[in-house]
Amino acid sequence: MTHEEDAKHLLRNAADKYDAAPPPVAELLRSGKRAKKRRNLMMVTGTVVAVAAVAMGGFVLRPVTGSGALPVADTTQTQPPEDGASVLERIKGLTGKDVGDALGLELMATGSAPCDAAFVEFDDPPGDGNGMGFCLEGVTDDPRVERLVGGQIAGRLPVDVPNVVGLRLEDAEAIVRESDLHASVLLDGRAFPPGSGGCPITPDAVVTRQDPVGGQLPSGGMPFYMTLYVDSGVSFEDCPETRPGPVVVAHLRDSTPKDASRLAQEYLNFPGVDGAGADRSEITVTLFTEPDVTEQELATIMERLQDEPGVEEVFQVEVKDL
Amino acid sequence: VSVVAADDRRLTADDDYSAYVAARWSTLIRAARLLGCSADEAEDVVQAALVKCYVSWSKVSTAGDRDGYVYKVLLNTRRSLLRKAGSAQLVGKAQQLEPSSGSDDYDAVDLTESVERALRSLTPTARQVVVLRFFVDLSEKQTADALGVATGTVKSRLSRALAQLSKDPHLADVPGWSTR
Hints:
The complex is a heterodimer of chains A (322) and B (180). Chain A is of the alpha+beta class and 322 residues long. Helix content of chain A is 31%, strand content 16%. Chain B has nine helices and no strands. Chain B has helices at 2-34, 39-55, 57-62, 66-85, 87-94, 106-120, 124-135, 140-147, 151-166. Chains A and B meet through α1, α2 and β8 of A and α1, α2, α4, α6 and α7 of B.
């Protein structure tokens, strides 16, 4: 037998000794139906809230894509767009107006939001497009929430829209930290590049920044983004960056986001990670590099990373052309 | 007529869901145990995951890889529950061995305990890969999808995990397990 077959026998024999009670099918059906009703109710509530908010004079809806799987028209962008509308305009075949029409809202393209504003997008489980209902359930009554938009573009786009807007950053962080949901906090009103919004950032991370980085690779090449995915199990196939190219991933064990931040600072001259005081856990640091970085440069980075304290695994993935 | 049709669809979906739960329940529970849950935690995690799956059953049932989807939800649910309860507390509870009752089950208990200890020595991610691939018998692609990593990552983690397990002292005396 191969070693793998040995392992299969071993695990099955060991697991056979665990008792498993009969499946509580009826109870699961009851609970599932209750959960489904609750979700549907929340979705209806969200729509009503959104429409009512617009009817009361309207506020700025700053759309941010929520799905990592969305196709994008422009895969060469090197800077995040200045406002959310431009994100949507760059989604293939759709414009901000399309989305606004689908939502029944007047979409207003604006400049940057105030620096102390933050969006919170909830998605649990990540990527399934059901985050909005959970968000409303979790934070509708939160006094820190100034304004709230919920809605899904039914039948048009598998995306969430920003669920909560107008929060101060620390409030957004606190809500995420206190919630039991997968969520990401989008800072400073800056829209994410298409295809990155759906990453399942966990509350441990609290804040993730996907800022353009001005540093240099050891070889002199220019890096692109540094992202922290804390205990998130991000798939790059599900969550591609906007451009194709090689990506270096370092997996850290028993580390904090601050540890990861130090690595990022050292390798990418990244300015640091705000609010990254989570407990020690497994962290994946993703170093997006220039598409034309050479194999030799990558090898150098990976070699150096492998020697860093706490780094358990370093590997390279290729972001495919979308 | 439309109401009847909707009811029929609901009936079919519920039947489909019930059949899936009945068929997979035992494996899901045991997988959760191998992932480090105590008996109670395993039931809680699996039930919570299955309730989530019910809510999105139309999506689950039409997914190309239903098992992969369900295990993805299971892992996410466990992660959330661990976070909620405090990892240390749950991990501590999960370490307790709870073998099934049996008359002369000492060998089996030894094996289970040895495997648990060996699995515990793996990193959480390595443990997940080993359990999904070797116990649940998901393919490498399914495992990769469930964990949200690339297939190459699954291969490399499996390779390292197997190498580590082959040297694990807890498994040294397990019959049929060759240390290489």
